[in-house]
Amino acid sequence: DKVHQLQLQIMDGGRLTDGKGNKVPFKDTILIMTSNIGVDETKAVSKTIGFGDVAKLTKGKRVKAVTDAMKKKFKPEFLNRVTTTINFDPLTKKNYLHIIGLELEKLKVNLKLNRTPYSKLEVDFDKSLCNHIYKLGIDEKFGARPLQRSIEREISTPLARKLLREDMDCSNTLVTIAAKRGKVNIGAKCIKKVDEPPFYMNAGNGNEG
């Protein structure tokens, strides 16, 4: 509520005054506010709307559920000062899988930027990982945020432990990470053949005839 009061001050006078009397201008500022309000209400509607066509949670029903939830949460004087309200469509499985792929790529980039020998390590993420992380559970209320925790728990932490536990030539190793039967498997193998000395170096000292 205190935050909403501060926002009312900004939307009314175009400025914000702090406890010390300092005034911060917001004249040329666009405020963008995001919220997960209405997620629970939308779920409740989808469970009680009946059968057949009536059972379809249309965009109109979802918007109404969110709007009603906003009216319960915020005071009229606050909502009346909000210029536009945008209702985003819920993330689909395709969206989640794309986000997971981006997070895995980010993990690979961070490893490359690491100022340690591990930056030379080659890492390959199998496509099965995306479905594995997705199946761990998606919380519509928190969007894609839980995915980061799942990736850290299932991939980042086990990978870090393996690297610290095993002595490997990072410039000569490929780490493969895949999911099978609900479990993440991390493997490592040599990707370059060690150069052997020329054959005459190993010929020994034969007697000259």
From TrEMBL:
Residues 91-184 form the Clp ATPase C-terminal domain. The keyword Nucleotide-binding applies. PANTHER family: ATP-DEPENDENT CLP PROTEASE, HEAT SHOCK PROTEIN 104. SUPFAM superfamilies: P-loop containing nucleoside triphosphate hydrolases (SSF52540). This is Clp ATPase C-terminal domain-containing protein. GO terms for biological process: cellular response to heat. Keywords: ATP-binding, Nucleotide-binding. It holds the Pfam family ClpB_D2-small. It comes from marine sediment metagenome. InterPro entries: ATPase_AAA_core (IPR003959), Clp_ATPase_C (IPR019489), ClpA_ClpB (IPR050130), P-loop_NTPase (IPR027417). One of its GO terms (cellular component) is cytoplasm. GO terms for molecular function: ATP binding; ATP hydrolysis activity.
